Amino acid sequence: MDQDLTRLLHDWRAGDEASRDRLLAEVYDTLRGMAAQRLGRGRAGHTLQPTAVVNEALLRMLGTEVDWQDRAHFFALAALKMRAVLVDHARARAAEKRGGDVAMLTLSHAEREGADAVEVDVLALHQALERLAARDERAARGLEMAYFGGMRHEEIACVQGVSVPTVERDLRFARAWLSRQLA
């Protein structure tokens, strides 16, 4: 599957639109699941739906000239674009309501680590990630890929060009740092 997606990515970048269509069909449900996890399933009153997040993220990705390396690289970029969509939506809502009705985001590793889901303000998370990136860029990007992309440690290591133990150390640091910032 990973090799098929990587081949589709390369074929798409070479101009094969049929490969692009097959690729999007293959990854759409995975991307939608990533978005649903971050938004929190079934939350009453939430105006942004997982499908809208994925569609907007894909539109932003289709307009970029990226030389896809592999499946992990694709999902890392998708995670970044989904984060941007969520932040833009939260900013728009905050501007409409003058700070009221702040958008919340489910931040959870429950599927991998047995932790409880925690809801945080999207803008507060964005600002905290920006501060973390100023302090430790690699840890911030790794955390972003884990939270927004649902990527495994091995995939993050591949994208960042570091070892899995380095990713694990970075994520432990980033989670602890983020917890203090959002407390």
UniProtKB/TrEMBL annotation:
PANTHER family linked: RNA POLYMERASE ECF-TYPE SIGMA FACTO, SIMILAR TO RNA POLYMERASE SIGMA-E FACTOR
Residue ranges that the Swiss-Prot or TrEMBL entry lists as coiled coil: none
Gene3D superfamilies for this protein: Winged helix-like DNA-binding domain superfamily/Winged helix DNA-binding domain
UniProt keyword Transcription regulation present: yes
Protein name: ECF-type sigma factor
Keywords: Sigma factor, Transcription, Transcription regulation
Origin: domain of life: Bacteria
Every RNA polymerase sigma-70 ECF-like HTH domain range: 3-182
Extent of the signal sequence: none
InterPro entries: HTH_Sigma70_ECF-like, RNA_pol_sigma-70-like, RNA_pol_sigma-70_dom, RNA_pol_sigma70_ECF-like, RNA_pol_sigma_r3/r4-like, WH-like_DNA-bd_sf
